Amino acid sequence: MPKLTINGKTVTCDAGTPLIEAAKQVGEHIPYFCYHPSLTRPASCRMCLVEVEKAPKLMPACYTTVAEGMVVLTKSDKVIRARKAVLEFLLLNHPVDCPICDQAGECTLQNLYLVLRAGEPPQDAQGQQGQGLSHRSRGRLRRRALCALHALRPLLRTDHQD
């Protein structure tokens, strides 16, 4: 049974256990969209990327299995930047029909947007700080039933108005 460290917490798991399940054992939540313990692990959403010591790149926690002596970071700056990039990509391609969606208000995508983007100043497509959207009006903070994409729409325009 391999022994590994996740965010400074030691855990012992059965061989073949995915990192995402090992993290749950020590109370660490790794966000995901495509993972289910009873299905194959496609690692297609890339939301569960984690930093594994001595690995050359970020690894998907749903696909990577535990190994003896493995050191895993789930909240490093590199991991958070990667998750934000994945989330931004998903939101750019997400349909804008959230007000009629059954998940509106209880959507994993909306929740991740709030967790990863809360507190950051809005930026437009060129990385300039946006003028037309205040922190208090972003996402579900004011518009609970609307999609996170609704909050991003003004950020994607380059002609912000006050």
**Rg calculated over all Cα atoms:** 18 Å
The structural domain count equals: 2
Helix content: 25-40%
Structural class: alpha+beta
Question: Care to count the β-strands?
Answer: 5
**Overall pLDDT, averaged?**
76
H-E order: EEHEEEHHH
Q: So what's the CATH class of the largest domain? A: Alpha Beta
Uncertain regions: pLDDT < 50 for 5+ in a row? 121-146, 148-162
How would you describe what is shown here?
It is a single chain. The protein is built from four helices and five strands; from the N terminus they run ββαβββααα. Strands 2-1-5-3-4 form a five-stranded mixed β-sheet, with helices on both faces. The chain is an alpha+beta fold. The longest helix has 16 residues, at 77-92. It has helices at 19-25, 77-92, 108-117, 148-156; strands at 3-6, 9-12, 49-52, 59-60, 71-73. It has two domains: 3-75, Ubiquitin-like (UB roll); 94-156, no CATH class. Strand 3 and strand 4 (59-60) form a beta hairpin. Helix 2 (77-92) packs across helix 3. The radius of gyration is 18 Å and the shape is elongated. 26% of the residues lie in helices and 10% in strands.
